[in-house]
Please model this.
Amino acid sequence: MTKTTLRRRLRTLETRPPNAWRETGSNARPNLHGLLRYPAMMVPCMQGDIIDIILDHKSQPSCRILDPFVGSGTVMTEALIRDLDFTGVDINPLAALVCEAKVAIDAGADIEGAAQTVLSALRSDIYDAIDVEFPGINKWFDDESAVNFSRLRRAISQVEDKGARRVMWTVFAETVRLCSNSRTSTYKLHIRASGDHVDANQVLLTFDTNLRQSLMRVREYRELIGTRKTKRPLVRIICGDARKAPLKWNISDHQILVTSPPYGDNQTTIPYGQFSYLAMRWIPEDDFPSSDAKRLMANTNALDAVSLGGTVRGAEEKETAVRATSQHFDAFVREAERTDRKLAIRKVSSFIGDFADVLNHMRSSWAGTAHWVLTTGNRTAAGLTVPFDAICKDLVTKLGGKPITSLHRQLPNKRMPLRNSQGAMITTETTTVFEFS
Ligand SMILES: C[S@@+](CC[C@H](N)C(=O)[O-])C[C@H]1O[C@@H](n2cnc3c(N)ncnc32)[C@H](O)[C@@H]1O
Model:
């Protein structure tokens, strides 16, 4: 297929987006996509459709998919379904654990057996001990709930295979999300109203329901991939900072980078760290695919502070560097400087500077042919829209990428608790496809 055909096919998606991209609820997140409700997940079939078109076109016979902000592994799952080698990076140990759980499912780990081990251990556990201790545990878990979470923790710890155990921790994390005293309507840690606490009896029932649904999802996924005729795809999950993650490529690979970066710094957009904190405090440190998990769960802000834009230290230098590269960022700063919102500007500068470092690192790790697919949202800061989509275009173009098409998708507002500090909602996302030849 020629480049012109590739562009035409992508532009057809732009003018006539498939109905499936508008699905919401469980239809939108089939098989492994729905194991854990992670913030700001991508639309799986949309990314899959774009990958399929690029696969038809790529110049090299072999390729590797890369997602430097892999989150819960939406792109990874779409890559695995297509038998494609994959590298994913995320700074969040819970995200990396969930991805490793999905890899274990793909690799054929005995998940039904692990579920039986957990359920039978639960039946015989009559202890009332609370097995973890951390600051604020009594605020987020009533004693009776903590006893039940401890039973679940002991039961899961009995599963011998690490991959299968990580699947159980994923089910556990979803149970923590639903049953702790933190509201489910926001990703921030925010105490529920007193009449709204989940009854302690619900903990084990919710886990049981989640477990059964997860087993169905595992079966659905395994039916979908069937028996592989070729060898299993090679998957690498790196739990670390995308600005310096060690990436290795085969000289003959075509790189397909598909990702959705955060909308801005975690504190004023989505606090992935706060979202993950409670589950992380319950899961044994050794089960995280990260040597840094203990430090990153030290307090509710630790992970958010090391994520992109997590500190305003050095914001001025970052701002100067990016203004020289991106005319849209430069225009934003000039407009924003008319307001007195200095801290808001520094936060945006720090985030954009860190993000530019990720793009530079990704390109300097791979000089061959590539397609990059970036899904971004434009947040508000200092009372102004931050044109992140246009800034991305400037930055990638400077690195030698050529924008081919931009697809716009309306976000289903009801499920987007993405209020930023100014209270404005992010209502659309833009997916831009770039080509490096
Ligand atoms: C929009 S989410 C990705 C969601 C993912 N596409 C999905 O469907 O689940 C952005 C991710 O970037 C991660 N992140 C933030 N700063 C990072 C950094 N410096 N290095 C790597 N990942 C980072 C966050 O932890 C979060 O998981």
Remarks:
- Residues 414-418 have pLDDT under 50 and may be disordered.
- The CA atoms of residues 316 and 346 lie 7 Å apart.
